[in-house]
C-alpha cells in the first residue's frame, strides 16, 4: 500500500491549526515556525508528516491522526525526526478542554517532549547538531508528530546507553521531581510522602528521596502490585489512596510531594509534622476543594508550608544541567525509568484511555 493510500481518510493539515496557528498560509504549532533559511537533511518545505491533533475536546475519541505540513525550524531552533514521544498527564488535561480558557483550541497538536535525531537547524544554530540524537522540549504542543521543532536551549544530546524511550520518560519528569524536593528543603532522615507515585514524576521522586537519605519514603498508589514495584524503587511504606498505610506507617511526615491534587489534598496537609512542607506539582486528580484554605489555616499552630511548583520557574540552564546529570545516571543504571508501554503514534487515543483509566505505571511512549 502506498503512503498516500495509507493516509486516506485522515484530516488534511490545511484545515487544522493549533491556537498558536496562523491562517496566512504559514503554520505554527506551539513553538513551530517557518524560517527563511535552514540547513537540513530532513523534510523540505511542502513535505507532510503524520501528527495527532484534538479534533474535539473531551474523551480520547476526540484525538485524530492528521496530515500536516512538516515543520521548518525558525532561527535558534532545530527540527527533530522523532523516535519516541512522551505521553504526559498535562496532555490529557489539555485534551479534556480543561485549559481552553488559557487559549487552547480544538485542532491543537499535543505533545511536549520528544527524542530522536536532528535533521534540520534554523539560522544561528551550528550545523554540527544535524545527525545528533537528542531529547527536546517542544512546549505544550508539537510533540505528537513525526517531526517536531524546539528551541536549541530546550535540546539536550543523549548519552550513549540511553534509549529515546527512556529519555522522554525521564526528561521532563525528573527535573520536576528534583526541584520539587529541593523546594521542600528535604533533609536526610526526614519522612517524605509521594502522592501519586505511579507516574513518571512520582517514580523518579521516590528514587531521589531514597538516594538523598530520607528516613522514610511513603507512597500512595492504587494496588498492592504497584506498591511492590514502588518498594523495589525505594519506597519504605505503601499507603492506599486515602492515606491509610496500616499501623507501621508514620503518622506524620515532613514533606509531601503531590502530583494528584483533587478533593483529598487537605487530608494530606493534615499529615504534616510541625514545620512540614507540602509541594504540589500537579492536579491530575482535579482542583482542591473550596475549603482548602480553611483546612490549611486550621493547621496554623504547626507552621505548615504550602507551595505550588512548576519547573517553568527554574532557569533553563539549571534545568538542563540537572537533566544531563539524570540522563547520565540513567545511562549507567543508577536512576531507573519505567516505560509502561510503547505504542504507535496512531494509537494515541488508546494511550489516553489507559491514562484516564488509571492503568499506567510509569509512562506510555508513542513511536511514529
TrEMBL record:
Q: Which SUPFAM superfamilies match?
A: GroES-like, NAD(P)-binding Rossmann-fold domains
Question: Sorted alphabetically, which Pfam families does this protein's record hold?
Answer: ADH_N, ADH_zinc_N_2
* Domain (Enoyl reductase (ER)): residue spans on this chain: 58-366
Q: Which UniProt keywords apply?
A: NADP
Q: Report whether Ribosomal protein shows up as a keyword of the record.
A: no
Q: Which molecular function terms from Gene Ontology are attached? A: oxidoreductase activity
The record's section on PANTHER family has: QUINONE OXIDOREDUCTASE
Name it.
Answer: Oxidoreductase
